[in-house]
Write a structure and sequence with these properties.
46% of the residues lie in helices and 14% in strands. With 215 residues, it is α/β, with parallel strands linked by helices.
Length: 215
């Protein structure tokens, strides 16, 4: 297993690298202290099994840098580690395509659990973002009560969104145009009564979906 750790604090990288050894018998850790070094390692080594990034690294223009990185490497699983506890910031990171957001104040076992979840193809949403912590996320539109009904294609796209895939990756997986994905996703948001990918994942996980046979 290969994991890329990108943080400009060497002591933090060392501690996280030691923690990652609990994940598997052989974990190879790649380290970067800047956004440019992240780019270099991806070119030299190819995409790792997981990239753990700090958005406050030198050269990393936060949301713009994250989107650019995922645009160039759409299959790269990215987990963000940050000192920010702002729920809006967390949601922006997840909406940009990261598969998880972990505050640096999180206990080591929470961090390991989130990493295992993302490696298994899941999406880690921090408790603060779902309103369970001290700083609840800004409320979105109220989801519909009871089961919701959508087409099989809409459900396929929803499942891929929950898995953390970008529109471009979803389009490639399903063999359809990216604008078609956006159209279906807009319909899914309306059906679920939400405004973002993160809210869609949370609402879908809490309710049931009835699938129609039409596309």
């Amino acid at each position: 297993m290969r994991v890329l750790i990108a943080d400009d604090h060497a002591l933090f990288r060392t501690g996280l690298s030691a923690l990652l050894q609990q994940l598997a018998d052989e974990v190879r850790v790649l380290e970067a202290d800047s956004y440019d070094r992240v780019r270099e390692l991806l070119e030299e080594e190819g995409a790792p099994d997981l990239a753990i990034l700090d958005l406050d690294m030198p050269g990393f223009d936060q949301m713009r840098g994250l989107r650019a990185l995922l645009e160039d490497h759409p299959a790269l699983p990215v987990l963000i580690l940050s000192g920010s506890l702002d729920p809006l910031h967390m949601q922006m990171v997840l909406d940009a395509g990261a598969l998880g957001y972990i505050p640096k104040t999180s206990p080591s076992q929470v961090l390991l659990g989130a990493i295992r979840l993302v490696l298994a193809g899941g999406l880690y949403v921090p408790p603060d973002l779902v309103g369970l912590g001290e700083h609840p996320a800004p409320p979105g539109p109220a989801p519909r009560e009871g089961p919701v009904e959508m087409t099989r294609r809409q459900h396929e796209i929803l499942q891929l969104v929950i898995a953390g895939h970008s529109n471009k990756v979803i389009a490639r997986k399903l063999g359809i145009a990216e604008k078609t994905v956006k159209s279906h996703l807009g319909a899914v948001f309306r059906i679920l009564g939400v405004e973002s990918r993160t809210q869609a994942a949370l609402v879908a996980g809490a309710g049931s979906v009835l699938i129609r046979n039409d596309e």
